[in-house]
Amino acid sequence: MSNRLLRRLVLGLATAAGLLGAGAAGAVTAPILVVEVDSGKVIYAQGATDPWFPASITKLMTAYVALDMVRQGKVSLDTLITISPAAAAEPPSKMGFRPGTQLTLDNALKIIMVKSANDVAWAIGENLGGSVEGFAALMNETAARIGMRESRWTNPNGLPDARQWTSARDMAVLGRALIRDFPDNRALFSISAIQFGKSIMANHNGLLGRYAGADGMKTGFICSGGFNVVASATRNGRRLITIVMGQPSARERDLKASDLFDYGFGQSAGWTAQTIDSLPASAISEPPDLRPYICDKRKALPVDEGPGPIASQAGSENASILAAAAPVGSALAFATLNNGSLKGRALPPRAPLQPILVWIGRDPAEGAIALNEQAEAEKAERAAKIAEARKTKLEAANAKREASRLAKPAANGKGAVPATASAYAPLETTPVIAGGTKSSAKAEAGKKPAAKAATKPAHKAPEKPAAKAADKSTAKPAAKSAKSAAKASGTGKTSAARSAED
């Protein structure tokens, strides 16, 4: 078997495995597109016009509307954007600015491109459009004007909304428009990191600084849409845009995008190649919901927090096979390669970050003052919370002591058992009932053997002589009385006298 046939066989097996994997996930085809920027010609397309939830790649549309307003003179990059309570309440990813905080539009755009801050993007929409709804209307109007066909926008940050979707084709149209219409702002989409105060935040785009020639643009992730990226790269003066959507992780998204770039740079779009404007409309009426496949409740929620320094291993074997086995312009099922083909692979470690300074206020000095004021305010708030907690704790302790004090009289009342009561009382404390018999007293003493043993030496010895003396002193007068009575009556001893003698 020739090497050419072997490569084709490997490719066919990988493609079949990928299609089976797609079938397991409800036959969902993840949108993928590779386009030449200058000509707009398609190098590879898969599901390119299918509707899809955009997530934070929405912020590319937000940036286009803002830059277009700057170009028209309606605002400037120095225009101050104010964070409203609604903007501050947006969920992460966010900067966490307090309501009332102001920053320039220039810094706001840098922040949403690198940090993907939802609170700042929301504030841009409110300030430039009058409201989020007004800005969404500007987004839809602008999208139609530049040739986007499948997109519908309702918010400027891409947080989940069932009414907001786009397509890989529309994002390619948008990416080309940003590069074409705002050449002076191209660096906005390739910032590796920003520095705010002492914090340095890296770009979420895992291709920047890791893939040779990568120079933009934006990533996004929500559970319903998976991990998305609109990426651009340049080699030998030729620039490509690659769109990858619906991936299960940021790592797989970045690896597939890098392989697609390798494949695209190895191909030359012929004069017969279709353009993004000629891509056919999708047969799908609404975007699929990938939440059951991407955000499994049994696992930790995946996040798109930017790439770390991952160890490098293999290169781009998949792209090499495709380039060698395929004729120019062939429509290969390249992007359906199953996730198993990516196992053990990683992009090279990231190049050192080159942070761009951003600040709040009109300039860095004003920003430093504002940060100090915020720090002092936060410190005062923390101190107030600690004092309030201590006060609450002290009041609770006082209330507990007062309740205990009030409960004591009730415990010592009628029928209550004293706390020092014992089941065995000493003999000395046992009351003797007046008029009780000697036997009953002994019976009472017999019930407490321990007390009896302790008191026996002190009472037994003097008790018997006293009893005999009492008997004799009582008996003798009684006998004498009987005898004298008998003599007086002139009779002998009577039964009473005998009884007394006895």
From TrEMBL:
<dbReference type="InterPro" id="IPR006311">
    <property type="entry name" value="TAT_signal"/>
</dbReference>
<keyword id="KW-0961">Cell wall biogenesis/degradation</keyword>
<feature type="active site" description="Proton acceptor">
    <location>
        <position position="59"/>
    </location>
</feature>
<feature type="active site" description="Acyl-ester intermediate">
    <location>
        <position position="56"/>
    </location>
</feature>
<keyword id="KW-0133">Cell shape</keyword>
<feature type="compositionally biased region" description="Basic and acidic residues">
    <location>
        <begin position="396"/>
        <end position="405"/>
    </location>
</feature>
<keyword id="KW-0573">Peptidoglycan synthesis</keyword>
<dbReference type="InterPro" id="IPR001967">
    <property type="entry name" value="Peptidase_S11_N"/>
</dbReference>
<dbReference type="Pfam" id="PF00768">
    <property type="entry name" value="Peptidase_S11"/>
</dbReference>
<dbReference type="GO" id="GO:0071555">
    <property type="term" value="P:cell wall organization"/>
</dbReference>
<dbReference type="GO" id="GO:0009002">
    <property type="term" value="F:serine-type D-Ala-D-Ala carboxypeptidase activity"/>
</dbReference>
<feature type="domain" description="Peptidase S11 D-alanyl-D-alanine carboxypeptidase A N-terminal">
    <location>
        <begin position="32"/>
        <end position="248"/>
    </location>
</feature>
<dbReference type="GO" id="GO:0006508">
    <property type="term" value="P:proteolysis"/>
</dbReference>
<feature type="region of interest" description="Disordered">
    <location>
        <begin position="437"/>
        <end position="502"/>
    </location>
</feature>
<feature type="compositionally biased region" description="Low complexity">
    <location>
        <begin position="475"/>
        <end position="502"/>
    </location>
</feature>
<keyword id="KW-0378">Hydrolase</keyword>
<dbReference type="InterPro" id="IPR018044">
    <property type="entry name" value="Peptidase_S11"/>
</dbReference>
<feature type="region of interest" description="Disordered">
    <location>
        <begin position="396"/>
        <end position="418"/>
    </location>
</feature>
<keyword id="KW-0732">Signal</keyword>
<feature type="active site">
    <location>
        <position position="116"/>
    </location>
</feature>
<comment type="similarity">
    <text>Belongs to the peptidase S11 family.</text>
</comment>
<protein>
    <recommendedName>
        <fullName>Peptidase S11 D-alanyl-D-alanine carboxypeptidase A N-terminal domain-containing protein</fullName>
    </recommendedName>
</protein>
<dbReference type="GO" id="GO:0008360">
    <property type="term" value="P:regulation of cell shape"/>
</dbReference>
<dbReference type="InterPro" id="IPR012338">
    <property type="entry name" value="Beta-lactam/transpept-like"/>
</dbReference>
<feature type="binding site">
    <location>
        <position position="218"/>
    </location>
    <ligand>
        <name>substrate</name>
    </ligand>
</feature>
<feature type="compositionally biased region" description="Basic and acidic residues">
    <location>
        <begin position="460"/>
        <end position="474"/>
    </location>
</feature>
<feature type="signal peptide">
    <location>
        <begin position="1"/>
        <end position="27"/>
    </location>
</feature>
<dbReference type="GO" id="GO:0009252">
    <property type="term" value="P:peptidoglycan biosynthetic process"/>
</dbReference>
